[in-house]
Specification:
Distance between the termini: 64 Å
Radius of gyration: 24 Å
Number of strands: 8
Structural class: mainly beta
Strand order of the largest sheet: 1-2-3-4-5-6-7-8
Shape: globular
Strand content: over 45%
Oligomer: single chain
Number of helices: 1
């Protein structure tokens, strides 16, 4: 009889322990503002070109090179309930050209991935991805 009591007490304790509410770990939300670096491709080619942005408050977008120097400037905006961005930037002289970007924004892991194109509202130039640096 005592073995039955111990057995049922152990089962009850196990059930009680397993059914306790676990604390949900809330991952911090990563801000879109900051330095982003990654790679881009031309059309469906390999991702072998450095691609970087400094995304600032107020919709300011800066294209940056591997050394962190500004090489272009433009604007960006959220859409799709802040899960994606669009933007347009123009290269600084002596370089020329205007480019558009569109990307998904994963605020839990700090990742952007999307497409780019020449001109405004054109996204057929290739693909790109970036990770947040700070």
């Amino acid at each position: 009889m005592q073995n039955k009591t111990i057995f049922f007490a152990a089962i009850f304790s196990l059930f009680l322990f397993a059914s306790c509410k676990k604390d949900n770990v809330v991952k911090p939300v990563i801000s879109i503002e900051g330095n982003w670096e990654g790679k881009s491709s031309v059309l469906s080619g390999p991702f072998d070109n450095h691609y970087g942005f400094k995304i600032k408050a107020g919709g300011v977008l800066e294209r940056i090179n591997e050394s962190g120097q500004k090489t272009g400037e433009g604007t960006w905006a959220f859409y799709a309930n802040n899960t994606a961005i669009t933007g347009t930037y123009t290269l600084l002289p002596p370089a020329t050209g205007t480019f558009s970007i569109i990307a998904n924004f994963d605020k839990t892991i700090g990742k952007l991935d999307g497409t780019w194109g020449t001109g405004t509202n054109d996204y057929n130039g290739g693909y790109w991805f970036m990770n947040k640096q700070d």
